[in-house]
Design brief:
Neurolysin, domain 3, two-stranded antiparallel ribbon, 5 strands, 3-stranded mixed sheet, mainly alpha, Helix Hairpins, single chain, Butyryl-CoA Dehydrogenase, subunit A, domain 3, about 600 residues
Length: about 600
Amino acid sequence: MTNYPMTWDLDVIYEGGSNSAAFLAELAGMERDIESLTGELAALAAGAAPSAEQLTNWTASVQSILLRIRQSDSFVSCLQAQQMKDAAANGLNDRVKTMSAKFNAALTSFDEKLLRTDDASWQAWLQSAEAAPVAFVLNERREASKEKLPPEQEALAGELAVDGYHGWGDFYNTIVSRIRFDATEEDGTVKQLSAGQMFNRLSNSNRSVREAAFAEWERVWGEQADLCADTLNRISGFRLKLYDKRGWKSILKEPLEINRMSEATLNAMWSAVTEGKPKLVRYLERKAKLLGLKKLDWHDVAAPLGQTEKKVSYDEAAAFIKEQFGAFSPDLADFTEMAFKDAWIEAEDRPGKRPGGFCTAFPKSEQTRIFMTYSGTPDNVSTLAHELGHAYHQHVMNDLPPLAQEYAMNVAETASTFAEMIVADSALEAATERDEKLALLDEKLQNAVAFFMNIHARFLFETRFYEKRSAGMVSQEELNGLMEEAQREAFSGALGELHPHFWAAKLHFYLTDVPFYNFPYTFGYLFSGGIYAIAKKEGASFAERYVSLLRDTGLMTVEELGEKHLGVRLDQPDFWREAVALLLEDVDAFLALTEE
């Protein structure tokens, strides 16, 4: 079996890590180009309409800078994630954020210039060879600029956000980097773990280990709750104030526009999910019974069934994932082999790393990097498959113009969740032993619980938190109450002990680039479920259609994507109901397998 590296290679991107001379040169070049673009845009006389040549040149500059901004942001994110106490990386992060603010100011000015072009000239220019491949995005930017503040005010807000809005997001990372969790080993020794290491213990097969880990998890996050509450209140306060100045009434306006989906689609999705929950509750009740419990506590939901938990080595996981991917698409399997072999994945279990997992793109280098902490659990294998799905999505878009590569989070989660489904379903079909089938069914249904219930709880919490925050600061006690209320509702009362400090522990609430980092996960899960059903019917021929769908994700609304590639209406409940029913078929199999 191949012995794959478990630490990533960043030197092939910019040699030298946080002291990279090549990266500093990249930043300096971008700063010059942003300044040049800003000057060119400002040179257009007040009220004057730009020429087609100017629009073409500005668009080329925007795309060139965008490619490098994305790459630079990814590089800094990787440096910070691999070692949270890398002070030099934190300094680079501040520089990239400052540069991004200046670029966003230039983009605001660029958008305003697009608006100055009369409709006839605009439509004619969009037919040009330079504009046509990104016409959808350019139209989108032109329309969005009509609903924002004057360019100079938007630019000011962006500049102030670096040390305000984004600064609070960065402060959350500081909180996480400092906290430590006490874990008692079997021999009685106590060692300190990072958040990423401790999180893996929350799904341990031994309930006493889980209980102790969860109690410690709640205790430590409770100690940080005052800092986390301040941070969350400041981030949301900035967001609400900016929305108010723009005249935006709905807190969902920005996240829906970012995800290129309508509120009707969001409501249709949640309605179908809610209708399907009673069946999922039956699974949770049966699992509680199998574990000898009246009700599952929060830390029991992701617990494996049985007292023995098979550890899967990293190389075994790689071989398994490649094999399952290969059954769907040889191209996907070849890409996966390259990612493992060329050290695109940071998987080592060591102190100092950021918790969680992610995939980030280096579009200039046409590469991606995957971050996680691999400890051999089945959940780790799923995470690995998930992130490789993200990486493949970017891979098939590398030859598109930079603006056409800007796909939204909800369709990004489609590719990753689809990849997870391939692995999970293939493993289940190959299983011959009852206990193995049961464990695999349980793992698949844990995903359904995560996307139908856990994510819904986050959505309900965040929606209600913003309602309260619009009237003033929200205390940590109120935040705990909102979270418990959301969890009770989203899980249909199926849980015993809840996780009141989940709002503090979850990074997603503190991301300043994307508000409501929750519902896109459920969208991706259900959308990929519908795609997967089609893939199973069509067989090998669907792989090519799948790539075509992925390549369109940066150039359409989700409703357009559904109609073109699947022939479905996403703003109507039928597609979502069918997807929910399909994904809950596993409940019947689980119940049948566990009947006494």
